[in-house]
Amino acid sequence: MCKEENDNTEQIANNCRYCGSIEEEEGDTHVHCAECGIPKDALADDEGFVPTNPNQTMGQNNSLGSFVGSRSDREIRHDRSMRRLSNLNGRVAHKKPTFLDGVILELSRTPAPNYLHSAATNIVSTADSEQALSSMRHSLRGIPDSSAEARQYRQRLFAVASLELLEDVGYEAPIATLRGEWEIDRFDLKKVKSRLKKLVKGKVECLSNSASVSANTRGSMVLHQLSTFRDHLAEQESITSAREVFETSKQIAASMGEPIEDDDNWFYSETTNRPASAVAAKAFMEAMHRHDLSRDSILELHGRYPVATLDTYILKKGWQDRTDDVAEEA
C-alpha cells in the first residue's frame, strides 16, 4: 500500500506543471517536456573528451600531462647543475664578432661593386692571417674618444686602406667619398695602408702584376670616368659645352698614353700606375681650362665629383688657393 502511494507521488512530481504530461526528452542543457517543450530540469555539465596518455609506464597515473611537463621534468629544469650546463652551452655556441668581421662589415657598407668587396675582403683576411689586425694599435690622429667609436674608426681605416691598395693597381674605388663620409684622417690612412701593404705583399693575386688590367679594360675605365665628368658638367653648364669638353679630354688622355680608342696601345707614362679616375679628372679639368671655362666652374665640378689626390694638381694650376691640407699629386 505504501509502495503504491510512493509511486503515485513520484509520478505526480514528474508531471509537467503546464500540460501534465509525463513524457520527457533531453536537450543540450535541460530535460524538456515532450509535449509542450517547457524545460523541467537542468543537465549536469559535460566534461568533454579527456584523452589518456599513450605512453603509459608503471607507476604513472592516467591523467593527461603525467608524462610531458610532469613534476619530474620541472625538477630537472630547476636543477642548478642543469642550468649551469645550459648557460655554458649558450656561451660556447655564441660567437662574438671579431675585429676582422667588423672590417668586412664596413667593407660591405661601401658603395663599391661586389668584385671590389671580394678583392678587399681577400686583402684584409690575408693580412689578418699574417698578423691580427686588432693588434695594430697605431697612434692615430682622428680616433674618437669613445671606445666603440674608436674600434669602428680603426675598422674603417683598414677597409678604406684595402680599397686604396686596389685603386693603386688600376681599380676604381670611392676613396674620396668614404674619406669624407667617415671622416678618415689622411695621415692615419697612409699609416694603415703602408702596414697593410707590407703584410699582403706577394700574397694577394689581385695586387700582383699578373692581375693588372688589359689595355681595353683600362680604356673602358678611363672613358667611364670621363663620361661621368661630362654628365656632371652638363647639369652644371650645358650639354653642348660638356660634349665639347668631353671630346677634348679624350684627346688629352690619349696624349698621356691612355688607350682611349679601340685597339689603342697603352703606353708607359707617369700616369700608367695612377687610378683611372685621377687620370680622367686631370684630362677633363685641363680640357675645361682650354675651353675657357671659369675657375669657379672647375672647382664646382671638383666639388660635385671629388677625386682623391687631385688637390695638388688643382693648386699647381692656380685654380685654388693654397690650403694646409693638400693631398699628394695625382
Describe this structure in words.
This protein is mainly alpha-helical and 330 residues long. The chain has three domains: 31 residues, no CATH class; 112 residues, Cyclin A, domain 1; 103 residues, no CATH class. 53% of the residues lie in helices and 3% in strands. The protein has 13 helices and three strands, in the order αβββαααααααααααα. Strands 1-2-3 form a three-stranded antiparallel sheet, with no helix packed on it. A hairpin with a 3-residue loop joins β1 and β2. The longest helix has 22 residues. The C terminus is likely disordered.
Provide keyphrases for this structure.
Cyclin A, domain 1, 330 residues, 3 domains, mainly alpha
**Rg computed from alpha carbons, rounded to a whole number of angstroms:** 42 Å
Overall number of domains: 3
Tally of contiguous helical segments: 13
Strand order of the largest sheet: 1-2-3
Query: What would the CATH topology of the largest domain be?
Result: Cyclin A, domain 1
Q: Mean pLDDT, rounded to whole units?
A: 76
Class from secondary-structure proportions: mainly alpha
Strand content: under 5%
- Percentage of residues assigned to helices: 40-55%
In short:
With 330 residues, this protein is mostly helical.
Topology diagram in text:
Blueprint: H1 2-14, E1 24-26, E2 30-33, E3 39-42, H2 71-77, H3 80-93, H4 99-108, H5 114-130, H6 147-168, H7 175-181, H8 186-200, H9 215-236, H10 239-255, H11 276-290, H12 295-304, H13 311-316
Helix pairs in contact: 4-5, 4-6, 5-6, 6-8, 9-10, 9-11, 9-12, 10-11
